Structure formats: C-alpha cells, structure tokens
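In this section we walk through a basic example: taking a raw amino acid sequence and producing a predicted 3D structure, encoded as discrete structure tokens. The instruction is simple. Fold the sequence below.
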Amino acid sequence: GYANRGVHFNINISYKFSKYVGIMLMVGENINSFDKAAYAIDLNSSFVGGFTAQNISVSGSHYIGQYMVGPCFSIPLEKKFSFEVHALLGVMTSSYPTVTATQSSSSLDVNIYNKYNSGVGFACNFGIGLKYMFSKHIGALFNASFAGSNMIYHGYSYSSIYDPHPVIHYGYTNYTYSSNASKHMSIGMLNY
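The resulting token sequence is shown next.
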C-alpha cells in the first residue's frame, strides 16, 4: 500500500472477574500519511516512456479505528507485573485519502482522481503483552497484537483523463467510474 509509518494508540479498560479472567474494552486508532513518492513511482512505471513532470495532491490520511470487546486473561508474574492475553471482537472503520495526480510527458497529460468512501467491517484483535500496575486500578500494558477485518466500502470514484499532444492521437481513452456498489478489502495490522 501507500501508507507511511504512522501513529497507533489503544485505550484499554479491563475488569477482572477473578484473579485470572476478565473482560476488556478497547478503542484504538491508526493514522498514517500517504506515501506520494511510492505512488509516483508506480504511476510512472505504468505508462510506457514515463512522465517528465508529476504533481500529486492528497487530502486526508489513512485512518483505521477499532472498537472491540472480549475476554482477557492475566497470569501474575510478581506483585506489579503480569502476562496478559486478549481475544476481542468488534467493529473496524477505515478511510483512505483522496488522491489527485497530474502527470505530463511530451506526448500526453494524464489526470487521475481516486476516492473511497469510508469502510466498516466486523473485526477481531488478538494480543499478548506485559502489564505493569502503577496502583491498584491504573497500569500500563506493553503488548503486540494482530487486528484484522474484511472491510466493506460503499462507494468509489475513479477518473482518468488523457489529453494527448498533438490533439489527434489514437489509443488513449478517457475513463470515469463512480459506483455506490460495495467494495471489499481485507485489512490486517500488526501493532506493537
């Protein structure tokens, strides 16, 4: 994909029914900027002869939200440390930036526009970690987890406009596609 490294955070709230078993509520977000350089390389390589000039504008970021609940298990290691495991289910939301690219060569100008509507899907999150308790009710969890979902995006817009030089040039067509149909995309993230 075209996501740069970004920011990830979770807020976890757990309640223990016993010394070893409890329930966890998690809200998490990933925010990543768009990698214009990688996108430009891919666009340039998709056209024979390449382009001499490119302008790529991006509106927004890659965003993924997680809203999960499920069981958590705790194995005490000593007074303030414990080993933690969780298996959560819930909802994941996602949005991608709107990308507009203008490319030029001696024989062709191309304008490309991509936009997905926000997506949503059933999700799972599995993780392990080490918890340190600062006090009886407040602690910090250092963990690694995997979150996954099969996202459904309702609506997608794409257009490519070819402007050949000279004006009489054959073999290129203008294309516009807009749909309210559902698109499915699998997402898997390793967070640590």
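Looking at the output, two observations stand out. The CA atoms of residues 54 and 103 lie 4 Å apart. Residues 36-45 form the longest helix (10 residues). In the next section we compare this with other chains.
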